[in-house]
Amino acid sequence: MHQISSGHPPPVTPAVGIDGQTVHGSVGSGSACPPIDDGGDLAGAAGRDSPAGRPTPRNFLVDAAILLALCVIGYTGYRVAPLLHPKTDLTLPISACNVGEGPCTARLPDGREIELSIQPRPIPVLKPLRIEATVRGAGVRGVDVDFAGTEMQMGYNRPRLERQSDDASRFAGQTSLPVCITGTMEWEATLLVDTGRTLIAIPFRFVSSH
Known about the structure:
It is a single chain. Strand 8 (160-164) and strand 9 (167-175) form a beta hairpin. It contains 2 helices and 11 strands. It is an alpha+beta fold. The radius of gyration is 43 Å and the shape is extended.
């Protein structure tokens, strides 16, 4: 038997979208629901959940490592600075005597004299050097000699001269000079004399030879 049509259109069934809103359309009539574009919502959700733009544990570790390295460098510089540039109470003018040609003598403010001798001469590089300082007058507590390039940093080189048992007024020690890639180099040998009350710097200059 054929079903007799009442002549009325089939009932419209509302469609519910993914966002909960009603989409009007006739399912029975064959009309399709409008396409659902959820790309924007998904992207927004991903952006809200993504850690982009927020510090990560790895970034914190890198920042902490950099900060620690800067602290170490600063502390090392603070500790090393007095070694490279000793704090003296008095620095005498550079002596006109060339200690690379022979012994040189300087007068201290209290009238005492001190003589510096470096051998062999001319003063070579990469070979042992014999250093002697002799104090004329009352004794001093200690004597160091600081070697530094006048135009180039050559590293820390400050031997402590030991008081000689056979002569309390004489101090002696050894060192050597590094080679300079430019060849001939001017050096400054600074006597650091500790009188017990003051630390006096007495600079002398010479040119090293190969």
